[in-house]
């Protein structure tokens, strides 16, 4: 995941997305789609979809991440709060 994070930080979003997508598939098959580590990758996939111009898909995926994190981690968990904050930012940027 470090390479994907580096690419993300370098704003090489398409390359980062490809790596995060591979990581997501592996984690989903081993840990399941509701595991916090899988959801962490899904969070970045949602952000990258949004940043790559697929804004509606990014918002939809972030909404799913938020709902899953509420169920698994609870509404007061830092990761859940980060998801809703990011989702709100996406909505704001999508309306401008």
Automatic annotation (TrEMBL):
It comes from the Bacteria. InterPro entries: TPR-like_helical_dom_sf. This is Tetratricopeptide repeat protein. It comes from Herbinix luporum. The lineage of its organism: Bacteria, Bacillati, Bacillota, Clostridia, Lachnospirales.
